[in-house]
Amino acid sequence: MPNKPIKIEIVTRGELPTCANLCGEDWTRADVQATLCEAIRHRFGENMQIVFTDASKKDAVVLKYKKETFPQLLVDGQLRIAGQFDARQVLQAVETQIELRV
Fold first, then answer.
1. pLDDT tens-digit readout, 72-101
2. Which of 13, 36, 41, 94 could form a disulfide with 70 if both were Cys (CB 3.0 to 4.6 A apart)?
3. In what order do the strands lie in the sheet with 78-82?
4. What is the pTM of this model?
5. pLDDT tens figures, 7-54
6. How far apart are CA 102 and CA 87, in angstroms?
7. Which residues of 38-56 are buried (b: 16+ CB within 10 A; e: fewer)?
8. Which residue has the higher pLDDT, 68 or 27?
9. 8 A C-beta contact, residue 47 and residue 57
10. Angle between helical axes of 87-101 and 30-44 (0-180°, round to 10)
11. Three-state SS across 1-35?
């Protein structure tokens, strides 16, 4: 039986204001999302479920973590980062989750 996929979810609340210090990614942009998906699959394989959720949309599901800080990174349903983060931090969080599963 194949391993259960790791679920990676990035939750945003609409577009974020631009940070002058380049302190994080704009996870609402399709090109940024595609680059992250490619990096995740290249490093960890295809057994990953990657979801981008915009909490500002009226059809968004009720969030498990209702913190006011966005974006949020959840890995297998657990909040890992609330606030600005980049692709490197996402990859580290996924690697940690893989290690925890062993």
1. 999 999 999 999 999 999 999 999 999 998
2. 13
3. 48-54, 6-12, 72-75, 78-82
4. 0.84
5. 999 998 876 655 656 567 889 999 999 999 999 999 999 999 999 988
6. 23
7. eebeeebeeeeebebbbbe
8. 27
9. no
10. 40
11. CCCCCEEEEEEECCCCCCCCCCCCCCCCCHHHHHH
Compute the distance between CA of residue 4 and CA of residue 62 in angstroms, rounded to an integer.
23
Contact (CB, 8 A) for 82 and 24:
no
- Determine the distance from the C-alpha atom of residue 13 to the mean position of all C-alpha atoms in its chain, rounded to a whole number: 13
Q: So what's the pLDDT on residue 57?
A: 77
Please report the pLDDT score of residue 73 as a whole number. Answer: 95
Report DSSP state, residue 77: T
Domains of the chain from N-terminus onward: 6-101 (3.40.30.30)
Q: What is the pLDDT of residue 1?
A: 41
Q: What is the DSSP letter of 55?
A: T
